[in-house]
Amino acid sequence: MSDAGSGAEGAPLSLAGEVATGITCPRCGGAIWNDHGEKTLAFHCRIGHRFSPGAMLAEHATKHHETLDSAIRYTAEAAALKRLFAAWARTRGHSLAAARLAEEADVLESTAHELERVAGTALSPPAWSGP
Amino acid sequence: MVGPVTDVLLVEDHAQLRALLAEFLQLLGCTVYAVSNGGEALERVRSKAPDLILLDLAMPVMDGRQFTVTARREQLLSDVPIVLMSASPEGPDVGFEIRANAFLSKPFTLDQLAAMVERFGRPDGQR
To answer: Do A101 and B19 touch (CB under 8 A)?
Structure first.
């Protein structure tokens, strides 16, 4: 690997021994570089957030969990909002719009439940393979 | 926030969908003129330009493309935003060709429609 520049397609960007990871900083969302290529694991982003291997794993996992929770919450809220609009439409005599909004709320509720199920699985560790 | 005076010309040949979309637009506070083809839409824009046109692509009598070409030739549209609606995979290309401002792929959710009205509708006292 060369010391500078982006190599051929698929090759990691590298700058003076630093390798772009394709992972984003859990604090600012910027690109993360591995400080020493394949020799050690130590990470930093463009604006100077620095992570030991353990800190990177922990902070990235926290962000991951927060993002999944946020997706579930927004989906559930979207369903509730459409239920609210459906009720409002019914009071205005707009039965077609009310029915459609209720259908869309049903889909969102199912999606929220499915996201909860998937997130529960995604956040559960695999079983130990050893004793 | 959509003002209560956004005039929307809704051009859709499917009667039930037209009724549904018209109801929802009214809930958003829009004044809706609903017609079933491009010919009727032309008559409407010749008498009064709306603030926003929601235009189906495939319709009998005059489709969305023909409507737009004719209306532009007659200089009826000036800066009226057009949102093209279609289930056709060619819909986005047609939207680009007729210089539609946005494209809604059918079937769409009502929040997607609300987003278009928010984006292109007339705020209170504007335009």
So the answer is: no
